[in-house]
Structure formats: C-alpha cells, structure tokens
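User: Here's a chain of 408 residues. Predict its fold as tokens.
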Amino acid sequence: MKRIVRIVLICLLIVSCKKQNQVKILAEGPWRVELEVMDNQLLPFNLNVEKDDKGIYTMKIFNADEVIEVDEITIFGDSIIMQTPVFEGYLAGTFDDTMITGSFVKESLDRVVPFTATYGEEERFTTKKPSDQNVSGIWETNFSPNTDDSYMGKGIFLQEKNKVSGTFRTTTGDYRFLDGVVEGDSLKLSAFDGAHAFLFTAKVTDSSMNGMFYSGNHFKEPFVARRNENFDLPSPDSLTFINEGYDKLAFTFPNLNNTHVSLADERFKDKVVIVQLMGTWCPNCLDESKFLVNYLAENPNKDVEVIGLAFESAKTKEKAFMAIKRLKDRIGVNYPILLAQYGSYDKKEAQKKLPMLNHVLSYPTTIFLDKNGDIRKIHTGFNGPATGDKFLEFKADFDDFVNQLLRE
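Assistant: Prediction complete.
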C-alpha cells in the first residue's frame, strides 16, 4: 500500500513535468467531490474554490453547518495538492476546466481513496423525487448488530423537505456534521473533514432504519435503528475508571522540545489539572482541543492546567512531533501536548502506557484531577458542536465541575 501512495504522487509529478509550460487556472466557484468507497458507492461532499487578487487559492469544505477553511493548496502544471488543515489527509489530482481526478491520501495509514470532482455542481446528493419519510428526531441505533463488535449509537436528525442534517452519537464520540437527503424511502448522509470520510445509506420507514455505514474504502458495517425519543446513551462519566490498587494518575512523556514532563512537575502543583488523551488524527479530539483552547482564553486567571497526551499514527517520532506542532500552530494550543505513543493509536497499547486505567475506550478521554492530584472524574468521548444541545450541556457541566474543584 505504501508503494501505491508513492505511485500516486510520482504520477502527478510526471504529468505535471510534461505540462509544466502550460498555465492552468483552477475554476473558482462550487465543486462536488465524490470519493469511491465500497460496494460501488460514492461519498459526496461540497467545496468552493476562491482566488484572491494575488492569485492565492483557498477552499471551503462544507458539511451541514461546518465550514472547513483550506489554505494549503499547491498547483504545478495541471496537478494540484489540497492539504486539509490540522489533519494529515490530502487530496491530490490533475485538473482541467471542469474536472479534478485523483486520490484522497492518508500516508501514515497507507490509505488511498480515488475521487473525482465536478465543477459547477452544487447539490451534495442529486435527487429525482421528494422524500416519502421524515427522519427528524431521536433514533436508537445498533451498529454491527448481533456480532461481538456491536455497539449502540444515538441518531439525532433534523429534516426540512428532503434535506437532512445531524449526527450519530456513540459512547466514544460523535460522527460530526452529517449532511444529506431522504429521497423516497432512501436516506443518504456524508461527511468529509480530511481525517474521516463517512457515508451512511439506509432504507427508512416512519419508525425504522436499515442501512450501511462506510468509512472511506477500508471499512463498512451494517446498522439498524428505531425511532425512540426517550433513548439515551450511558453517562460518559461512568465508562472509564481507575483500577484497584491505584490511587493516582502518573506518567512521564516528552514534549515538543523532547523534554520529559510529569504531573509531579512544579507547574501542576496545587492546580486543577485536566488531562486529555487525544491524537492529532482525531476529529473529536480536534473539537475538544478547540473547546479547551477557548476555555483557557476565557479563564486566564484560574488555577487550571491542561495537558494533552498524544497517541499518534505517525510511523516515526519526528513525524509524530511534526503532527503535534501542526495542531498546536493551527488552532493556537498553548498547553503542553506530550507524545505518549507513535506508530499506532491502538487502544490496548495506549492502556499499557496508563495501567491505572481500566481501559482506553475512546479518543478523546478527559481526566479531571483536583488540587491534591486525586482523580475526580473521567469523561469518555466528546460531544462536539455537531450534537447541538448535548454540546451546550457538556460546556455547562464542564464549567460547573471545574469551578467546584477550584473552590475546594
């Protein structure tokens, strides 16, 4: 697979070198991108290309209410590389006036997903008939039902005519900003953010869904759902806990300067400390990191410290540090992020780094320590902005709990 990634880039360079004397201009305006996933399914998303008076290109990727600004675009000849912000994933291809053809690439995971993009197409999913059903509301969802890998989710959707937005929450996080349609009795939802490419398809009735979830072209699983306005997931504060025989959290990992940092360091003494288990590849972690950055900016005088522990997919320590620095620079993270693991973000391996935890169930996982260094709460997953009211509830609970610890 690594060879395939290299071939994609080499072919782009060869094509570009042959046409280096031809000036190519990328058309400004709307484009619809379609990734080729499994079962001959196409995963669409929308982007808009802009060019300023200096000839600098930027793009905006749209997922329902989410807008992702892309400002790292390289054009050489008729070839283009579009590097998504924060995440390592990029779109690379060749283009003409109306089409871009190429691949979505994630090098650390050796993943290559073919795509085409068509200029002037504004609809995400093309529809030929109106919806027969309305999926607005709460859906009790079972992914991979009747298997050892089964897990529960909570679908939260809003439909206007045939347009649908919302997300699925799970115990480990949410599937972020899903955007789609209901055509007849068929539901289609998608999201693309540079880290994940998600497609959900389902047949729906007024009370049931039966469908398939695709992640890129490397994974798929079935899901079933039933309408249940009273359904909720287990409390995220009840899923991860300290193993018997341990009473403190302890670790020592290197920061960007390769200096080892520990909770025993003076800067954390007599402070409320929030420890974030995360990865730079993880969209839910990005959502939480943005929240923590804003919290610290809005509460500069409080005795609160945040420290991130990064579990990275990058193959080398150097590349892992580069990914951490990129995240910190892009969103203004001013708290330390330590490299806890690289080469894999396997959760069982992560738990070995923190043997006091019963497991690492999710990225992110957030651990709250009081001024004595005692663990007071462990929050599994993150309810991001795509979850609407749940995100607002999380922010209020976070603020209340931290203020309680500060008063003690």
